[in-house]
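Anyone? Bumping this.
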Amino acid sequence: MDWVIFGILAFLCVGSVAAMIFSRNPAHNALLLVLCFASLGGVFGLLDAPFAAVVQVIVYSGAIMVLFLFAVMTINLKKGQARERKRKIYAASMILAAVLLVELAIVARKAFWPAAESVPAGAPAEPVGIGHLLFTRYLYPFEITSILLIAALVGALVMAGKKESA
Amino acid sequence: MIPSSAFLALAIVLFVLGVAAFFVKKDLLTQFMAVEVMLNAGNLAFLSLAGRAGKAEAQVIVFFVLTVAAAEAVVGLAIILHYFRQRKSVRTEDVDGLKG
């Protein structure tokens, strides 16, 4: 049963990103990515990470991709439509991607070589423990992240609010 | 029980697809989306390898990656929109202002 769910979710994930490579419409790309991130949330759930699964669905496919969709809708699609790359560059990038795949596979193989252990079926980490960790061991990173968010917000406001000067 | 190597394999495939999409695509917005795919593959790798180190820590890391990705998306999209307002294009080949 686990394998069936994992197979469906993995197929949705990989399939939607592959469809994104071949689709030319940015709005379709954003919607495909929503599907990919939602199914990735399901994969996180399979990994006994309920907090990450829920946050993935809400923040990634709910907030970040909707932001992308807003940007896509703001930009005039007809004018911004991109032509495909030349065939030579396309082939070269595919070869590069294949080489990267082989490299990563070798590294992963090395990482699992001593003992190909499976994930122990421990109790899923509850959000209580995550909150505890966030406010004790990871307090400084947490505060720094909040400063980063404020800086990003102010920066985006300054950039988006500027009048056209060109 | 699914071994964690299966999840790691999925993460690797997703990362490589993100890289391929980044190379193949020609408009800034879609390339930016490809970067998001790569970030997600990294998250999945973190979680799939967390069996040894503890689940809660990995989810904290995922939380941080997500927050930074949100900040990055906000600033990046603002830059792209600003560029589009000035040049009326989001094609990568038109972005050559520093080329001289």
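Late reply, but here is one note on the structure posted above: Chain B has one domain: 4-89.
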